[in-house]
């Protein structure tokens, strides 16, 4: 066991030919994602902000953000904020939309917003929008925090899960995670009923000890990450699951490695699970016992050596999602030339530190406001 621990601390087990990580090609790949996309991405128009997140956070992980026009992108992101109207009648619809597909006026200001019957925030776009702003160095001063939190509360269902949009959608663990990230980033948990969300996560534990998208469903690497990361952001992991339960979750996760990782038993490995499952193992404090070399070799086998980026499988086309999570998977193994990733928030640790600094500033401002509101003693 001692030998296993030592091997784990040195960077995992396994031998094999060491493949090159082509950093500059990946930088150019993410730059292209911000400029022009292939036709096959057209179906993602309403989710354009998530593609921007993969590219921007990817460049941040590669310490190459200086290659983009930060101010222009910040203005574009703020233009996607669904703002309260003057009468505040749409507070329950606020957040961030995925792109300008509705043809709303370009408005990067703090408001007021313009009413539209089909305009509402999307929980994943609010999460990625806030991430992008912090990644780009913005102070979130134009984010209407009250409205974002009101819009978030309107998306939570009675069972504790969240829908993506007010009009209705799937409700599952993905959106619980988005909600937890939004509350964490805004440093305000009034946007969700945490007790109901925690109960939803607890009920989603399956018979084989992984977490599913909901109660009675199949365990999955992605939903296990979303549940565990949400609890970590809340600071509730050890309160919700006993040490025995956590050990069972650890076992389920560590069994997902073959060379890379898969999301479910008897499924092929896929680049993105090197982050989803790897980050879960990191949060559960046993990632050091995985086989780094085999995981690294699998990720790099999906690397496009011509145009950059990563695919889900070898000899497949790279895409923004797998390119980003391939980078993050390598970051967990301390790959040279890549920043460390925050395993719960899914951004670089530099960005998470910037966010922590913003929280300190907000706390000081709140404290000063409270002092100003207290009348002087006479």
UniProtKB/TrEMBL annotation:
Domain Prenyltransferase alpha-alpha toroid stretches: 21-347
Pfam family, one: Prenyltrans
One function term, GO molecular function aspect: metal ion binding
GO cellular component: CAAX-protein geranylgeranyltransferase complex
Keyword Zinc annotated: yes
SUPFAM superfamilies in the cross-refs: Terpenoid cyclases/Protein prenyltransferases
Family note: Belongs to the protein prenyltransferase subunit beta family.
Name the record gives this protein: Geranylgeranyl transferase type-1 subunit beta
UniProt organism field: Salvator merianae
């Amino acid at each position: 066991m001692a030998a296993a621990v030592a091997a784990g601390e040195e960077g995992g087990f396994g031998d094999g030919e060491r493949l090159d990580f082509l950093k500059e090609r990946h930088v150019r790949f993410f730059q292209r994602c911000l400029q022009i996309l292939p036709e096959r991405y057209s179906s993602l128009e309403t989710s354009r902000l998530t593609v921007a997140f993969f590219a921007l956070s990817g460049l941040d992980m590669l310490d190459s953000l200086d290659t983009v026009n930060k101010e222009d992108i910040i203005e574009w992101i703020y233009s996607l904020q669904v703002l309260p109207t003057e009468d505040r009648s749409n507070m329950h619809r606020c957040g961030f939309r995925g792109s300008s597909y509705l043809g709303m006026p370009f408005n990067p200001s703090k408001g007021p917003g313009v009413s539209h019957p089909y305009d509402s925030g999307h929980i994943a776009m609010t999460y990625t929008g806030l991430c992008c702003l912090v990644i780009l160095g913005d102070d979130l001063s134009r984010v209407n925090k009250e409205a974002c939190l009101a819009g978030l509360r309107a998306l939570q269902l009675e069972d504790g899960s969240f829908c993506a949009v007010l009009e209705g959608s799937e409700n599952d663990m993905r959106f619980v995670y988005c909600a937890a990230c939004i509350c964490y980033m805004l440093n305000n948990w009034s946007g969700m009923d945490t007790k109901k969300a925690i109960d939803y996560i607890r009920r989603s534990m399956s018979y084989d000890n992984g977490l599913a998208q909901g109660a009675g469903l199949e365990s999955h690497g992605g939903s296990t990450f979303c549940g565990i990361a949400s609890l970590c952001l809340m600071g509730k992991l050890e309160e919700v699951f006993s040490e025995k339960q956590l050990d069972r979750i650890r076992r389920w996760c560590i069994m997902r490695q073959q060379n890379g990782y898969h999301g479910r038993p008897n499924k092929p490995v896929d680049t993105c699970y090197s982050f989803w499952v790897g980050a879960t193992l990191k949060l559960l404090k046993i990632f050091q016992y995985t086989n780094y070399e085999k995981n690294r070799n699998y990720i790099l086998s999906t690397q496009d050596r011509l145009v950059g980026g990563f695919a889900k499988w070898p000899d497949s086309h790279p895409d923004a999602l797998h390119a980003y999570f391939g980078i993050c998977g390598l970051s967990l193994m301390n790959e040279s030339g890549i920043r460390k990733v925050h395993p719960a928030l899914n951004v670089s640790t530099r960005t998470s530190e910037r966010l922590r600094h913003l929280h300190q500033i907000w706390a000081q401002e709140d404290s000063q406001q409270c002092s100003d509101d207290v009348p002087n003693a006479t």
